[in-house]
From TrEMBL, chain A:
Lineage: Eukaryota, Viridiplantae, Streptophyta, Embryophyta, Tracheophyta
Protein name: Trm112p-like protein
Similarity comment: Belongs to the TRM112 family.
Gene Ontology MF: a single term: protein heterodimerization activity
Gene source species: Aquilegia coerulea (Rocky mountain columbine)
SUPFAM superfamilies noted in UniProt: Trm112p-like (SSF158997)
Subunit structure: Interacts with TRM9.
GO biological process, one term: tRNA methylation
Coiled coil start-end: none
From TrEMBL, chain B:
Protein name per the record: Methyltransferase small domain-containing protein
Annotated source species: Aquilegia coerulea
GO biological process: one example: methylation
Molecular function terms, GO-annotated: nucleic acid binding; protein methyltransferase activity; S-adenosylmethionine-dependent methyltransferase activity
Entries under InterPro entries matching the protein: DNA_methylase_N6_adenine_CS, Euk-Arch_PrmC-MTase, PrmC-related, SAM-dependent_MTases_sf, Small_mtfrase_dom
Length: 122, 289
């Protein structure tokens, strides 16, 4: 699971008002090289919750992202490379996503988050 | 599970996996790079729906529309109900990967299916982010308006309502009354997730009343077109493409007049492609539009 996916997932439990961002519990993560495409990053940038990405990347041991961003930074190759690495190349393989409101764990197994709810959570 | 066994479950018919395999082998022999997923590389599991006629029809529809898809330059593509991974893998091979600036999501409610999808993707050297989810429940909030291409081969087989969404492989076909239970839940999700230029490709069965589905989508501002129609002894499949159309939206918002005809272009599209569907007229009467 890439951090892009983490940035797009929220806790869907009934009654949870603020299910984003999910906490990250890391048991195993891998880095995989992904082809660099600046246009994709520029398309995605406005849709990314930056603070959630910075926190998630730190949890995965990557602390190179700036805390504050503005769109002018997209002109910088150095910034785009860091953004690319954090968004697409850090994969959570084993661990869990944690609902920020209830603490409910959504397991991540073989890189696949399980967002299925129990009957009493729907 | 063998494809022939699943014929008894009414989601398939004549084209066999074997024939597909031959077609794939033909491509290898003629040294053509495969443009879609290869049957021999599809991962399997007894509780996961194997690619069959409906999956092939959907991939054929995507292939038929490939030039348009490439010109469309989507950023995010998504499959809801990815099963074996045959369709999302084919789409990723067809349209390209990160180097072209594309990203893929795939979801399935069946935990075995998401694992199998991941294996199928890896066997073909392509990537999609795979999530075990009920439709797109965990993604809906943040991915709203971001999907440029969505593909769905829904559970469309008419079954008793209590078979819908049960554990295992049955979730791949059990569609409830008229096979519409899951389809009718998917369409509002698609409407929410699709970007302003988003396209939806969906497999339907004649029993699902595709004319009524198109009519309902028209009220939400979507035009539609049949990309692939395939009839077998057991079922008649349509792959329908939906896209947002400003003209359709205006028409749909206008006051309802009993004998009003829909815009000619839509009537022509649907009537020319669904000549055998008598419910078109009746559904419109019932809707009073």
């Amino acid at each position: 699971m890439r951090l892009l996916t983490h940035n797009m997932l929220s806790s869907n439990i009934k009654g949870v008002a603020n299910g984003f961002p999910l906490g990250l519990e890391v048991q195993k993560f891998v880095e995989k090289q992904v082809d660099f495409n600046p246009d994709f990053l520029k398309n995605m940038f406005p849709k990314i919750e930056w603070k959630a990405l910075v926190t998630a990347a730190k949890t995965m041991g990557y602390a190179e992202l700036p805390e504050e961003v503005e769109s002018s930074m997209l002109e910088s190759e150095d910034f785009l490379q860091k953004f690319h690495h954090a968004l697409l190349e850090l994969h959570l393989e084993e661990g869990a996503l944690i609902c920020p409101e209830t603490g409910r764990r959504f397991a991540v197994t073989k890189g696949i988050p399980n967002m299925l709810l129990h009957e009493d959570e729907v | 599970m063998d494809c022939n066994i699943q014929i008894d479950m009414h989601k398939h018919s004549s084209t066999t996996t074997h024939e597909r395999e031959k077609a794939n082998r033909g491509m290898v022999l003629s040294r053509m790079p495969s443009r879609i997923a290869q049957i021999k590389l599809i991962s399997r599991h007894t509780e996961v729906y194997e690619p069959c006629d409906d999956s092939f029809a959907l991939v054929d529809a995507l292939l038929a529309d490939r030039t348009n898809l490439l010109e469309h330059r989507p950023t995010i593509c998504m499959e809801v109900g990815c099963g074996s991974g045959y369709v999302i893998t084919s789409l990723a091979i067809m349209l390209g990967q990160e180097v072209e600036g594309l990203h893929y999501f795939a979801t399935d409610i069946n935990p075995h299916a998401v694992r199998v999808t991941r294996e199928t993707l890896e066997a073909h050297g392509v990537h999609a982010e795979v999530i075990c989810d009920n439709l797109a429940s965990g993604l809906e909030r943040r991915l709203e308006g971001m999907i440029d291409v969505m593909v769905v081969n829904p559970p469309y087989v008419p079954t008793p309502e209590d078979e819908v969404g049960i554990d295992g492989i049955a979730a791949a076909w059990a569609g409830g009354e008229n096979g519409r239970s899951v389809i009718d839940r998917i369409l509002p999700v698609a409407d929410k997730l699709l970007s302003h230029r988003g396209w939806l490709y969906m497999v339907t069965l004649t029993a699902n009343n595709p004319g009524e589905i198109c009519s309902n989508m028209r009220k939400k501002g979507y035009a539609s077109r049949i990309v692939v129609q395939r009839s077998t002894e057991e079922e008649s499949l349509h792959v329908i493409k939906f896209w947002r159309d400003a003209d359709v939206q205006v028409q749909a918002r206008e006051p309802i007049i009993t004998d009003r005809r829909p815009p000619m272009s839509i009537m022509e599209t649907l009537l020319s492609q669904l000549p055998q569907l008598p419910f078109w007229g009746s559904s419109r009467t019932r809707d009073g539009s």
